[in-house]
Amino acid sequence: MTAPLLLLDLDGTLTDSYPGIASSVAHAYTASGLAVPTPTELRSIIGPPLHDALLEQGMSVSQAESMVAHYRSAYVAGGMFDNSVYAGIPEALVALRDAGAALLVATSKPEVYAVPICERLGIAPLVDGIFGASLEPGSATKAGVIARALTGRDPDEARLMVGDREHDVVGARAHGVDCVGVAWGYAHDGELEEAGAVEVVDSPAALVATAVRRLGL
CA nearest 13: which of 217, 213, 201, 212? Predict the structure, then answer.
């Protein structure tokens, strides 16, 4: 019998990655001769692919590509590890696995960054796989990452996505998967509910209870 599947976003769901991402984005703005956004504006960038977020802010494709290159230089130099696991998440992952769920990280972050981050922070041993985007611009949709994570799996298995931004909800819905939102991430007030999250939980313990119920464990 196939284990029910829980897909897990990374930034803002399992880890508080704001410090490293914010400093790397700030570096990209400074290196490009632009004013650095406010802390609130920087928080709103976390979640969607940076290239797409910059295009939404009105930058040209060439500007966005240049910004991403500056960002990655700072991120690889150390920003990617200025990151921490939210309290209660390791215990939640253990409890979910013990309950019988298969756990896959599905993040819009490039996989070449997501894997070492998960290894460094001790997440990798607690999950059954880590799926991320490629480094190519425009390739980092959440729906695309989820498609890869679902490849080869039993289409009749119970499935649920967990994330902190509207992109997680929309990406999961593209595959007929419900999404539970987490309140401790980077969404603005009401964002997850407006996007169609089936529930929003306020603690890792509540996440475990909700996932167990919705997956029928």
Answer: 201
Q: What is the mean pLDDT of the chain?
A: 93
pTM: 0.91
Determine if residue 134 is left, alpha or beta; phi over 0 gives left, psi from -120 to 50 gives alpha, anything else beta: beta
The 3-state DSSP class for residue 181 equals: strand
All CATH 3.40.50.1000 domain ranges of the chain, comma separated, are 5-16+84-215
Assigned superfamily of 5-16+84-215: HAD superfamily/HAD-like (3.40.50.1000)
Residues of the chain with CATH 1.10.150.240: 18-81
Residues paired with residue 180 on neighbouring β-strands, in sequence order: 162, 199
Q: Judge whether 61 and 100 are in contact, CB under 8 Å.
A: no
Distance in angstroms (rounded) separating the CA atoms of residues 173 and 169: 6
Can you tell me the mean pLDDT for 26-45?
Answer: 88
Pairing relation of β-strands 15-16 and 84-85? antiparallel
Q: Exposure pattern of 175-202 as b/e (b: 16+ CB <10 Å)? A: eebbbbbbebbbbeeebbeebebbbbbe
4 by DSSP, 3-state: which? coil
Q: How far apart are CA 14 and CA 204, in angstroms?
A: 9
Provide the annotated active-site residues: 9
Does domain 18-81 match CATH 1.10.10.10? no
- Tell me the per-residue pLDDT of 91-135, one tens digit each, with 9 for 90 and over: 999 999 999 999 999 999 999 999 999 999 999 999 999 999 988
